Amino acid sequence: MPEQKKLGFxxxxxxxxxxxxxxxxxxxxxxxxxVGIKARITPQMYQLRSERxxxxxxxxxxxxxxxxxxxxxxxxxxxxxxxxxxxxxALSAKEGELIEEAVKRFDHLRTHGKLELPGKKPIAIxxxxxxxxxxxxxxxxxxxKGFPVAMxxxxxxxxxxxxxxxxxIIKYFRKNHLFYGEDKVTKGGxxxxxxxxIAGKYHIRPGRQWVIEDSLSGIKDAKANxxxxxxxxxxxxxxxxxxxxxVGERPTLVLQHAKDILGTLVHTIAGERARRQRRQxxxxxxxxxxxxxR
Length: 294
Known about the structure:
By secondary structure, the protein is an alpha/beta fold. It has helices at 21-34, 43-46, 52-55, 57-70, 74-79, 82-85, 93-112, 133-145, 157-167, 187-202, 216-224, 239-243, 261-264, 269-293, and strands at residues 8-12, 114-115, 123-124, 149-153, 178-180, 209-213, 228-232, 253-255. α12 (239-243) links the parallel β7 and β8. One of its GO terms (biological process) is DNA repair. This is HAD family phosphatase. It holds the Pfam family Hydrolase. One of its GO terms (molecular function) is phosphoglycolate phosphatase activity.
């Protein structure tokens, strides 16, 4: 395949390849509740994970605690997440210990689905990663056509692998095509590793590589690495919010769903047939218009 026709794809995991909002909300609610912090995490609240100040699990849980303690609304935190971040340094040692324990329980619950607590009934979660058929079809097609695919997540390997196994998608990625931040490395550094691997192994320059993300911070990191970017509208970011950004900070492309890259970036047989039909209809309309004018 000629170089100019090759594409490489770097996928974010949560919110792009898998949609586990229901699972995460249940896990966060139960993890906080198990340490005595009563909070019901809703899908709307989980949208905060798209902000840098809430992206890491510890920051997410401590942020929820601070919002409850200080009476900060979701709208305030979403519009100005810095107001929550500024208060993290004021948490007491005891509050910090509670958050750390909630983080451990959060990680264990979402990976294993069950948590045994001394002297108490075990905590279990009931939400599982949905096996998204269209995502699996898209990844299968990319593999078949020779388009390299990589996965980047700021989270931990043990969690990400468990999610991908459950969703039935890990088989579509080569072992050295999976990049984990382990809650320590930022997306920007991971994108640099992934794009370097794709450029070196497949001779695809960064300008032909696409990052598929669901957060504006991820799009920003992709742009910093000279990568093209596609934002999927899976709930974390709205089209209205994207329109408010300066042109230079907007994603290259906006998709309704990650699976839509096949019809948008890569010409499939079905897509080419549809385009051909649209061209034929346009020609007929144009021709009929000329006849009427005469």
